[in-house]
Amino acid sequence: MRLSELSGATADALKNAGASLLDLMTPTVRLGVTGLARSGKTVFITALVRNLVAGGRLPFFSAMADGRITRAYLEPQPDDSVPRFAYEAHLAELAKDPPQWPESTRRISQLRVTIEYTPAGTVRRTLGPGRLHVDIVDYPGEWLIDLPLLDMSFADWSPRAVAEARAPQRATAAKPWLAFLSALDPDAPSSEQVALAGTALFTRYLLEARAPDSELMAPGPGRFLLPGDLAGSPLLTFFPLPPKAGAGYQRGTLGAMLARRFESYKTHVVQPFFRDHFARLDRQIVLIDALSAVNAGGGALAELQRSMEAILRCFRPGPHTWLSAIMPRRIDRLLFAATKADHLHHTSHDRLEVILRLVAEKAIERASFAGAEVRVMALAALRSTREAEAREGRQRLPCIVGVPMPGERLGGKLYDGRTEAAVFPGDLPADPASLTALPAPTAGSAVVGRDASVHFLRFRPPRITLETPSGEEPALPHIRLDRAIEFLLGDRLA
Ligand SMILES: Nc1nc2c(ncn2[C@@H]2O[C@H](COP(=O)(O)OP(=O)(O)OP(=O)(O)O)[C@@H](O)[C@H]2O)c(=O)[nH]1
Ligand SMILES: [Mg+2]
To answer: Which residues surround ligand 2, an ion (CB under 5 A)?
Structure first.
């Protein structure tokens, strides 16, 4: 009996069983796209998928360049409990007039791309066409800053968090909460009302401290900045306390209550986040917005360096720890990428990579990613500028041309978001160490200490069309996205 002769329901069941079997037999790469808030994760994932699906211009992605990719398409993701990445909605934002960047991510989502390809080797080819699943998760970058908490107790975390609040550049935002803290007796009997009042002030401080520059590293915990579905939950009702001499807090005290809540936050929020989305990665791309940190000046680059180091340490836990127990796999390829390289002329990309290496090197060394192949590159997932040369007297300046976002300013000029401008962003220093050595910003200003020789504007995304009149899906412009894909997936499509 042929499939066509079976009853509809039976034929469907058989087809589904066949499809699930094929799914089970298809190898999967779990690709981690790791990055702090606004580092470029959502744009990277959207551009990656679009270029795979639409067969983009990817000359250094060999499977594509050799014409071996038969088809790439989105499939239902494996975890039904996680929402799907809003790929089409993000593309639709980019295709608007004027084009819009996707909004900052507020919840977790997942996506599976299936790639059908012809294997490169003659022997492999005799086994028939190849298939590969690529699973990717997108999440709010704010949540990433919680990973280092996994290794900390309340007594470890509290003094660090209080010291962060006392840093000069956060003093204004932190003042009401610090005043509350100085009048507080942590050994007094526990009180939900006091905990709620302190949490409200602590949360307001965290949000205000990051407001001037949301692209920069912000103190957490991450869910206080972006609670997702935990808004108002008791899991988010705690705050750090000043260092305490002697033993811990007695039972029944406010201090003991806050310490317990901190542990619950780790157990019920941070651990599942890490276990479900990071512990089983095969490959990882770490996106770093080094240019925003350079732009901000002061200690921003050094702070970025420290936080990336602390975050990446979680991926290489010491033996016999909670983390090592849940990390069965090893990440065998790790790519550090400086995003938004289209903010610079290509002649400055080498310097950007040197800065990135400075940020990444300590992380690699201290987190001992020994065994993994590591690469560093500057890229733009969605190229928004083109290059030009401007003459200033007898000098030729390498410029970039694009449409600055509304509200961007340069040299006294305020941009309206519609006008194209040729911009000379300045030269990155040849010696990146000079950037991490700048003095920390002082009270009330996030920009004191800015290195005046460089200034990067935010640009509108390029104009794109979703479909040409002949029904083709044009790919998206990029810088070195193909090299990134080759490194992350190339060998799995050989
Ligand atoms: N010029 C340029 N800007 C980019 C590029 N990628 C990202 N951006 C800028 O960076 C911003 C943040 O990018 P997202 O992809 O939303 O960053 P994210 O890491 O998903 O951020 P969260 O969702 O907040 O964690 C965008 O709104 C753009 O302004 C790029 O390739 N080129
Ligand atoms: Mg995002």
So the answer is: 41-42, 105
CB 106 near ligand 1, within 6 Å: no
What is the structure's pLDDT at 446?
34
Q: What is the DSSP string of 449-463?
A: T--TT-----BPPPP
Spatial separation of the C-alpha atoms in residues 53 and 30, rounded to whole Å:
18
Tokens describing residue 400? 């970039």
3-state secondary structure of 28: strand
Amino acid at 371: G
pTM over 0.70: yes
Per the CB < 8 A criterion, the answer to whether 284 and 336 are in contact is: no
Ligand 1 mutation target, pool 34, 38, 41, 210, most atoms within 8 A of CB: 38
**Does the beta carbon of 34 lie inside 6 Å of ligand 1?**
no
pLDDT of residue 363: 67
User: Ligand 1 in contact with 43 (CB < 6 A)?
Assistant: yes
Task: From residue 168, give the alpha-carbon distance in Å to each of 110, 377, 450.
Answer: 39, 34, 15
Contact between 7 and 14 (Cβ < 8 Å): no
Question: Tokens 């003459």 belong to which residue?
Answer: 391
| Spacing, Cα 37 to ligand 2 middle (Å) | 7
Pocket of ligand 1 contains residue 288 by CB under 6 Å: no
**Residue of 34, 41, 42, 43 to mutate, ligand 1, most atoms within 8 A of C-beta:** 43
| pLDDT beneath 50, residues of the chain | 1, 3, 367, 438-451
Mean pLDDT of all residues in the chain? 87
How many angstroms separate the CA atoms of 222 and 213, rounded? 16
